[in-house]
Each structure stands twice: as C-alpha cells, then as structure tokens.
Amino acid sequence: MNPAKPANEQQRLATLHGYKILDTEPEAAFDDLTLLASHICETPVALISLIDADRQWFKSRIGLSVTETSRDIAFCASAILQSDVFIVADASQDERFAENPLVVSDPKIRFYAGATLQTDGQALGTLCVLDRVPRELSLEQLEALRALSRQVLAQLELRRNLLSLEHSLAARDRAEAEKERTLRELKAALANIHTLEGLLPICLSCKKIQDQKGVWQPFEYYVRAHSEAKVTHKICPECSKAISA
User: Fold this and answer.
1) Residue 46, SS3?
2) Whole-number Cα distances in Å, 229 to 126, 222, 224, 225, 233
3) DSSP H or E stretch at residue 88
C-alpha cells in the first residue's frame, strides 16, 4: 500500500529542507535520543526518520544498518498522517503492511510505533521504535516516546538556530573584512591626494614657485612665507666645478 501524502506536502518539504539536516553526519545529540527510545520501549530498533519527497532518511538509527528506504514502503510515511503515536502491533496481520518488503524480508518488521515530529502543523518525520515480534507498548512507554519526540524536535530547532547564527557571524565577518578593505583603499586614495596636493608648480626656466593664489615667487621667498625654515645659500660641487671651468 502506498501511503497518501499530507495536504500541505509542498510546504512540509520546504520546512524539512529548511532545517538543512538531510544527508548530514550522525550527531550524538540525536543518537542519544534513539538509544533512550530503544531502551525505554525495549525494542531492538529505534530510528529518527525524516520523510523526504521520495524516501525516508534516518538521521539516527539503532539496530538497523541502512540509512534510508523508499518512501513507498516506509511505515513512517503513514505515521506522519497521524496526530498521535502511530502503532502497528503486528504488521504481518495488518492488510496495510502485510505485503510490505520490510515485513516479508529483512528486517522483518512486526511491531512499529512512531511519534510524529511535528512543527507548526507540519510533520517532518518520526521518532519510531520497531521490533521483530508482535507486541504493545505500555502507557508509560508511549508517554516516554512522545516526550523523546519533543526532544528530537528541540534538537532540530537548536541545530537550525546554530546554523543560522554561524551564517550570520560569517556574514558579519565578511562585512567587516569588506569595510576594512574599503577603509584601506580610502586611506590610500587620500594619501595620494595629499601627495598630489603637496606637489609644487615650479617654472622650468627660472625655477620660481607658484603659490595657491597663482603668484610666482622665488624659491626662498616661498619657503619663508609658508614655513619657519631659513634659507641659506651654498654652491653644490657640480656648480662649483662649472664656475671654476
């Protein structure tokens, strides 16, 4: 049986992809929760299953080697249509799953219980426990499974917020680096302007200097007018040789 899809499927998938968690490496925070679910519910298999467009992918898994299966055969694809824990006491006797490949061959599922991971009315997947023999869960185990599913959602939110913070910090660092680069370029440009401003127009013939008012003055007059420096007169070696010749 191919399970139906939620009415808000496109929005649900957009929300799931927004968590940027599909195909990521295992993380202890999630593995701890599946381990607890397995121990509390006394099942050999526990999974955090996320339902993508055409597959179910396991963020965390205990007692199962595969990392994903087709959505068509996923128990969790039916579980996300429910508002509470979805339970299949004996899959081999349930007409919805009796011919399912996961039931008739390895891992030969008999018992399934999945608590929906639901945020803002959108079911992303489940925290589920499985067994190879028919069974039931006690009320205490059911409540614990619900509580653990809420913790899975909390971890998903925490992880998404940390990613968002990292991206924000990276963007800030890039903006700071760009600002520093711009400041360096502005300082260099300003230095060039000051250098150009410091160039004095000197007559090629008489060597007089033109001041800011456009008046041409002998060098020593210009220096006296624009600084406290004193001008002394000497003859350089080259000129001395020219005079002596």
Assistant:
1) strand
2) 86, 10, 6, 9, 13
3) strand 86-88
Structure tokens at 53: 């467009």
DSSP 3-state percent helix, strand, coil across the chain (nearest 5) = 45, 20, 35
Residue pLDDT, tens place only, 17-73:
999 999 999 999 999 999 999 999 999 999 999 999 999 999 999 999 999 999 999
pLDDT in tens, 140-153: 999 999 999 999 99
Residue 194 structure tokens: 């000051």
pLDDT at 87 over 70: yes
In sequence order, the β-bridge partners of residue 116 are 126
Domains of the chain: 9-166 (3.30.450.40), 200-244 (no CATH)
Residue 189 burial (C-beta neighbours within 10 Å; 0-12, 13-18, 19+): exposed
Q: CA dihedral defined by 108, 112, 118, 124, rounded to 10 degrees?
A: 10
Distance CA 46, CA 115 (A): 11
Residue among 57, 39, 41 nearest 49 (CA): 57
